[in-house]
Specification:
With about 60 residues, this protein is mostly helical. The chain has one domain (about 1-60). About 85% of the residues lie in helices and about 0% in strands. The chain contains three helices and no strands.
Length: about 60
């Protein structure tokens, strides 16, 4: 994503018009990218927490 932004800024001279577009586009892309992984990372976190709890319980 950083590369795409760099190319975009190189091709188009940075102006007051371009900056807001980049700022608004970046969060949108981030949100779209972040939403799909969340369901995947959540179970991982839960599993890791569960494993830690089991380990802690077995140590006790």
């Amino acid at each position: 994503m950083a590369t795409a932004t760099g190319i975009l800024l190189k091709e188009i001279p940075p102006t007051g018009v371009i900056k807001p577009v980049t700022q608004f586009d970046a969060p949108k892309v981030k949100k779209e990218k972040m939403v799909p992984p969340e369901p995947f990372s959540a179970p991982r976190k839960t599993k890791a927490t569960f494993t830690k709890r089991v380990e802690a319980a077995s140590l006790e």
